[in-house]
Amino acid sequence: MALKIPPALVFVIIAGLMHLVSLFLPFGSLTLSGAYWVAGLLMVAGGVLGVAGLLQFYRNGTSVDPHKPAEASTLVTDGIYQYTRNPMYLALFFLLIAYASILQNVLNLFILPLFIWYMNKYQIIPEEEIMEEKFSSKYLKYKSEVHRWL
């Protein structure tokens, strides 16, 4: 399995890189009116997505541990999982976009895709492989109907 770094730590690392870019590459800085409002809305959206994803896992009585996807006892396809297969990871991405908005450095827009790339390669694809083995055709059907991110 390719799972390497916990998603929360990946989030912290990317946020740290964004902070360093803002400190050491100030030529990318700009002032955007309403940036804090946008950040606030994204934080709320991220919070709602993340909590909704966790609640659906708890309601279905399955594991929320991202390093032990094989412990999933149920394929969760209801609630927020009708719209995205990865609401908790999407929540982290929304929070990173919010942080980029607060930092107001356009160069951080080039760091955001690193989160998507890493999560796809080292977290989501390995999870999907396990779900395919565990839930076979039911998961393949779900996967064909609901997008990975949005």
UniProtKB/TrEMBL annotation:
<keyword id="KW-1133">Transmembrane helix</keyword>
<dbReference type="InterPro" id="IPR007318">
    <property type="entry name" value="Phopholipid_MeTrfase"/>
</dbReference>
<keyword id="KW-0472">Membrane</keyword>
<keyword id="KW-0489">Methyltransferase</keyword>
<feature type="transmembrane region" description="Helical">
    <location>
        <begin position="34"/>
        <end position="58"/>
    </location>
</feature>
<dbReference type="GO" id="GO:0012505">
    <property type="term" value="C:endomembrane system"/>
</dbReference>
<keyword id="KW-0808">Transferase</keyword>
<feature type="transmembrane region" description="Helical">
    <location>
        <begin position="89"/>
        <end position="118"/>
    </location>
</feature>
<dbReference type="Pfam" id="PF04191">
    <property type="entry name" value="PEMT"/>
</dbReference>
<dbReference type="GO" id="GO:0008168">
    <property type="term" value="F:methyltransferase activity"/>
</dbReference>
<keyword id="KW-0812">Transmembrane</keyword>
<feature type="transmembrane region" description="Helical">
    <location>
        <begin position="7"/>
        <end position="28"/>
    </location>
</feature>
<dbReference type="GO" id="GO:0032259">
    <property type="term" value="P:methylation"/>
</dbReference>
<protein>
    <submittedName>
        <fullName>Protein-S-isoprenylcysteine O-methyltransferase Ste14</fullName>
    </submittedName>
</protein>
